[in-house]
Amino acid sequence: MTNTHSVEADDEQSTLIEQIRWMQLITDNVAADIVYIDAEQHYLFVNRGIEELLGLPRKDILGKRLKDVLNASDYEYVRPHVEAALAGEEVNFVQERTWSDGSPRQFQTSYRPHFDSSSQVMGCFIMLVDVTERVRADTALRQTHQAANLLHDIAVAANDATSPDQAIQICLDAVCAATGWPIGHALMPAKGSSEEIESTKLWHIDDPERFELFRQITELVGFKPGIGLPGFILSYATPHWIEDITQHRDYPRVNLGDGNDVRSAFGFPVMVGEKVAAVLEFYTDEIVERDNQLLELTAQAGLLTGRVIERGQNEERHQQSEMRLSGIVDIASEAIISVGTDGCIKMFNKGAEAVFGYTDEDMLSQSIDLLLPERFREHHGQHLADFHQAPEISRLMSGRGTLYGRRADGSEFPAEASISKLELPHETVLTSSCATSPKELKPKRR
Which of 273, 382, 416, 420 could disulfide-link to 394, CB 3.0 to 4.6 Å? Predict the structure, then answer.
């Protein structure tokens, strides 16, 4: 029995060697790296791709064990997979290997056990397919999607922001979430100075206790143009990356004692027109190589945030302009009243309050007809519509005889008035200037 079993084993071994010879002829030109090892992890077959991968000729590989050919870290990585395959389990995974020229490559790797006629594992086939370009394409596609999602989230959220500070906070939070960096901070040019940038006290900090000293120091330090990360961005209005801030001796926050746990940093400007309206800076406790794609992405985020700040500045200027106009209108002695296309009052100044006896709170959003005697109301709407369509932008309102107004107490008075037209993007506003007629002021005859 023993001799018979030995003969059968020898026959299977001879058959395997013959199969390996055929495999050699077939597989040397396939786009895969192929290995066959026996149950003791000896190389029995390698194709040309494995020679190129390992940078060794076949004669220096065949007959040796995996651990004697692979470097220690590579062997420790694949050892569990090899042992699983030699125990009868099929294994598939993606691994990174260093090519013989030193370049990193990604391989889709399969380990398939080889069974003899009695279902015992004789060895293991290993096949590696270079998927580096596919992985790069998948990674690039994923990064593109992440970039698009980040910009979309910032654009949507910032558009709903009610203030520049809220828009900046949204941007800080979104960039930290996308990058995994624990610190985000905003600075703005100091008030009354274009030569220094200072903290806004707007932060994103994942571990406030750990980075408390860094935060405190940052909020005390001002940055001149060209000094430190914020100063550089302020000067050049461009994103900037520092791989290791501890190697930059001109960095103002580099010597912060035990609380300084930050290493890499990057930042970008928030632009309003050609001016830097804010600088957003980000920090991590690891050394991270410069990522140009991230810098380009965050530069776009800075432009989106800048539009929100610009919108806020425009609204503030508009409010200030309205306040100035309101102040001028309110000191006028005449009644000045504005109505929209629906005939409802939009402005009712102090002069109008004095003339008609109503307050602006009483009249805002009310119909202008309330200020006319009832006998004039039927045709007044048509007169306004005619003026809407007329080419002139202003006219006196005395062309149809004496004009009368009606006070809050029901009394009537003759008035002199003019009307003007202002075309706005979404409607036309009519403004009337009205004063009591001199006729009413003449002393009554006795």
Answer: 420
